[in-house]
Each structure stands twice: as C-alpha cells, then as structure tokens.
Please model this.
Amino acid sequence: MQQLVILGAGTAGTMMANHLRKKVDLREWKITIVDQYPKHYYQPGFLFMPFGLYSENDVVKQKREFIPEGVQYIEAKVDRIEPEANQLVLHSGMTLPYNILIIATGSKTAPGQTEGLLGDDWRKRVFDFYTFEGAVALREALKNWKGGRLVVHITELPIKCPVAPLEFTFLADWWLTERGLRDKTELTYVTPLTGPFTKPICSDVMGHLLTEKKVRTVTEFNIARVDNENHKIVSWDDKEVPYDLLVTIPTNMGDEVIERSGFGDELNFVPTDKNTLQSKVKENIFVIGDATDLPASKAGSVAHFESEVLTKNILHYMKGEPLEADFDGHANCYIESGYNKAFLIDFNYDLQPVPGTFPLPGIGPFSLLKETHINHLGKLAFRWIYWNVLLKAKPMPGIDHKMSRTGKHIPQEILAAEAVH
Amino acid sequence: MAQKQINGTTIDVNDEGYMTNHSQWNKVIAATIAEEEGITLTPAHWRVLDFIDHDFQEKGVVPGMRRMNKVGGIPTKDLYELFPNGPIKKAAKISGYPKPASCV
Ligand SMILES: Cc1cc2nc3c(=O)[nH]c(=O)nc-3n(C[C@H](O)[C@H](O)[C@H](O)COP(=O)(O)OP(=O)(O)OC[C@H]3O[C@@H](n4cnc5c(N)ncnc54)[C@H](O)[C@@H]3O)c2cc1C
Model:
C-alpha cells in the first residue's frame, strides 16, 4: 500500500482530502490527513464578528465533519518534515512515512515579530481580527467605544486576504455611523504600501472610497514598534500615529514546522512552483493554500482553484506522467464596503483586477470592481458555499480554475503593455 | 524607454530612474546614482549592495526587509540610517535592479 499524507486539515487540506478520495484508487493508496486542532474556523467570518454580524456559531465546526470516509484522520502536531527520509515526525516522536506529501499548513499571525505589540495595550487597546480570539475580544472592546482615534493598521505583506483590512475599515465607518459615533471617531488607515491595495486600478478605486468615507490614509508606514505608554505606533523613520484603539494585522507567517524542517523562506513559506504546485524541496512534496510562497493572494478562493490543478497533478505524479503547469494565480475576492454593498475582484498572476461582469460575460449577476448590493449577497452566500461546496470539493458550475478574460473590460494601456511582452 | 549618460556611458532606465539592463551596471554608476540620491557610498553601504546583488543572482528578486535581516544579517535600523526614506527602494536603485514590489 502506498501512502499519501496531507499535512493540515484547514481550507486547502480538507479540499484535497475530498478531491483525492473521489479520484485516487484506494486499493493502492492510503490517504491520511493530519492536523493539530479539532476545530475548523471559517476565517472570512472573523471580519464580521467584531460588529456582531456573525456569532461564534457561524464560524466554527468540527474538522472531522469534513473529512470523508476512507480517509484516515490523525489529530497530532507535526514537529518536522524529513524530506530525505520521506516521513513526518510527530510531536510525540512517532513517525509517519509517505510516498507523496501535500503541505497545507496555512499561515498565521505572528504578533511577537513586532516590538511592543504584545505589550500592556495588547487586547486592551490593541487588537487583531485575524484570529478567532482576536475577533471576539475586539467585539467586546467595540461595545464600549465612545469615540476617539481608531487606527486600522497593516504590519507587513504578504497577509492572507489582503482586502480584509479595507473591508474592516469600511464596515467600521458604517457601524460607527449607525451608532452616532462616526463624528466622534477619527478613522485612520495605515499601510506599508504606497496606496490602499497592491494592484494599481483597484488601489485607485479603494483610495477614492476611503476619501469619500473620510478615512485618513497613511501610506509607506513601516512599523518599528508599538509605544504602549503613549499609545502610538512608531515607524522606522520615526513617523508616529497615535491611537485609542488599534486594530492591527500582525505579520503573517507560515507554521514553525516549516522552519524546523529547514526549507522555508524568511517567513516560513514553502518554495513552490507557481504553475504546477510542486515544491522546490523535493519532487514528491506538493504545496497548496497559504503555505506556499507563490505571488498569488492568500485566500480560500485561491486554495479552491489550486485544489483543482493539484488534484490533476497528484494523479499525474502517481502515474509517472508529466505535471500540468496549469495554475494561473486566479483569485476571486469580495470586498465588503458597508451599507449592504460590496465589490468583487477577479484576477490572476498576469491580469490585475479590472471592471466587468462575473461569471457570465455581460450578464453577471456580479459586477467587477463596482459597488453593488448583489455583490454583497454574493459575499454572504460565500459562507454557505464554503461549508457545503468548496470544502467538500463539489464542482462550482460556470467558474473555472483558469481566470476568464471574457466579461472583463481590460483598459487599453494594459492590452498595449501585454502586447509588448 | 529612457536613456541616461553617466561618465560617458549610456545606461537604460525606466521613468523612475531604475536601470533596466543590469549588464550596464558597474561600481562607478552605482556611486553616481547614490550621489543623485544624496548618499555617499561607504563600506557599510557596499555590504548591503553586495548582499542584494548576491541574492538577486540567486532568487531573481530584490530581497525584502525581513530577508535582509534574517539572511543578510543587516538590521532594519541600520538600513534606514544608510539609505534614508525607503531603504530597499533606494538600495535597489543603486544596485541597478528593478524597484521591488513591496515598497520600503
Ligand atoms: C479575517 C480573514 C478574512 C478572510 N476573508 C477571506 C475571503 O473573504 N475570501 C477568501 O477566499 N479567503 C479569505 N480569507 C483567507 C482564507 O481563510 C485562507 O486563505 C484559507 O483559510 C487558507 O487555507 P489553508 O488551508 O492554506 O490554511 P488554514 O485553513 O489556515 O489551515 C492550515 C491548517 O494546518 C494546520 N497545521 C499547521 N501547522 C501544523 C502542524 N505543525 N501540525 C499539525 N497541523 C498543522 C493548522 O492547524 C490548520 O488547521 C480570510 C482570512 C482571514 C484571516
């Protein structure tokens, strides 16, 4: 019997277990999935929790519920991967051999990376919403908010779901307005980037919206430390932003298991081929989701598109066939903008987000890079789709893992630049 | 694409002054670009520039701040002192490499 092991039963690992269970010959291959924790969190829901829009019940289920029959589930912390020995070493010291390994260990916040972030103000005036505990604590803090300086801050990139801090800012503006607190609150958005988002056209649109909503934006701010005593963040070039409430996105890093295994980059992300999803560590190791070092967004939608390509490539690899260089960096993200409206962006390695309709060209029902109520309904539907379609690896009719250019209004300058390359 | 004269040599640059053909780069050109940015190169600067050069040859991208710290052993504070107002941007420009996507 050959062994296929999936490390990590989060979004991406669970999808792979469900895909492979249907496709792999289980008389020849035994599939095992390992994760350290029992709970599966719907992380996109963390955005809504601080405003009381989602509760704990909306975002937590048991991991085991989503692991199909025929796949062995082991709850254990993995200490390290030994590529030369083709085995995992569990925290208990037990070893788990594999013929094929899929790494799906995700990324997580690392607040300890910033001086002072875990100081006296932590969870008193300084919060994050990228963890379940953080989102809950922030909800309690907002209940007591009377006004003052509310600062939303990104420490460094990459972060998972890079639009989430913008969404948080828009929702905060709405929430404060509804409660009659907006006039008493100075809302500031602080980013290390030169603009609100990584991609130029989308960044412009978001910049206008921030201005419209009277959010002060501080760009190119690279945090050196949190000054807990005087309640301000200080940059390396000595710029200061004072806060009464700081909502920060700490540094995001891959799991320490990658560092202990000796092959991660400086943020513990795994070197991965950006089109085949094979690791650069060894040919029988593949990587999916937030754990990769790909220049793609770290998002559940990306993990979904990757899972379709990776399933094909695992089957190819089992048969000794060449891999398909088929992943194009496709991402599809809603940007919640408050007042029951949202944007939608659809892009890949080569094409940045542009206006248009999705998924049906000219029809939609969703509008790209435009604020609509229907997009907001799409964002809300995403939770149901996540639990019932994506995790279970059921097909999403009409949405291919390859980004479609039809239905997109691609500006002349972009087409001209593409023609040169 | 624009061109620029430095000490009698012609170099290709983009509209922000980043060199587009690294084979045209040499230490004299580096020193001249540095002067334009208000920086006089010292051995401490060269340690940074050499690391960027070495790392770019290996990885094909300009290293970010965290990589400079962890792999290059150069603390962030030093980088800000050596190359004020956006150390990576400036160091990349002086090294003759493209402007990095992350924009420190
Ligand atoms: C606030 C927020 C909002 C978001 N919004 C969106 C959105 O709107 N749309 C979208 O598409 N995406 C969104 N995302 C991103 C999305 O949640 C992630 O990209 C996705 O969950 C990544 O899946 P993953 O499987 O790679 O990692 P995860 O789901 O995080 O799973 C990693 C798993 O590996 C396990 N693991 C790690 N190390 C070990 C070890 N040593 N031993 C054993 N087990 C280990 C962990 O326990 C975990 O279960 C959001 C994320 C956040 C935080």
Observations:
- The CA atoms of residues 115 and 409 of chain A lie 45 Å apart.
- Chain A touches chain B at residues 156-157, 192-194, 198, 220, 222, 224, 236-237, 265-267 (CB under 8 Å).
